């Protein structure tokens, strides 16, 4: 399905029915296939919307500035258009940043957040590496840099790596560069504020590489619950859904439904 928001066609899928609702948000370089295992699983429990961010998948890819705030507005628009109210927002990587942005700006919108290895409150060690990635994405060897980023994000055992590489390479250079450029300013200027403003239950599931300062996150957001996937790189929704889906189930049963 597609809907236009501010003249931009946004692609998404919906499935399921029931009072429990979900919004799935892929990360940079992804598309809605990154949450296919979760759509199949959670659509049996309620109504789910699987979004494709502008610039990604089958959504329009205009030459423009891309930002966490802009993506968040698109996601709320899509949910409102489909009568998705009080969803559990499940975001992988940058999708988790958008989930926090939504929770801060629209406090009555989400029922809970699940952040899958999201770069929120980056550890200090991430700065230099990410600056190198950005420079590589801007250059003539864009394709090689994309493959390097995906390889660095995966474990050698990750079976999802070829598929992730394919979705990244299908994302235009101008989209990856603009979005990547916006990540660190958001982390510096918005992440703390969004974490402090969040009032709903939050689950953070970490993969093999540390992308968030979880101790600092917990100080800012006392309702934070953390977990760690076993044997998975960054794209854990694809790589280990047999771990991720039950963790989300448990989180909802203990924290989200209790609060509704």
UniProtKB/TrEMBL annotation:
<protein>
    <submittedName>
        <fullName>Pimeloyl-ACP methyl ester carboxylesterase</fullName>
    </submittedName>
</protein>
<dbReference type="Pfam" id="PF00561">
    <property type="entry name" value="Abhydrolase_1"/>
</dbReference>
<keyword id="KW-0378">Hydrolase</keyword>
<dbReference type="InterPro" id="IPR050266">
    <property type="entry name" value="AB_hydrolase_sf"/>
</dbReference>
<feature type="domain" description="AB hydrolase-1">
    <location>
        <begin position="22"/>
        <end position="126"/>
    </location>
</feature>
<dbReference type="GO" id="GO:0016787">
    <property type="term" value="F:hydrolase activity"/>
</dbReference>
<dbReference type="InterPro" id="IPR000073">
    <property type="entry name" value="AB_hydrolase_1"/>
</dbReference>
<dbReference type="InterPro" id="IPR029058">
    <property type="entry name" value="AB_hydrolase_fold"/>
</dbReference>
<dbReference type="GO" id="GO:0016020">
    <property type="term" value="C:membrane"/>
</dbReference>
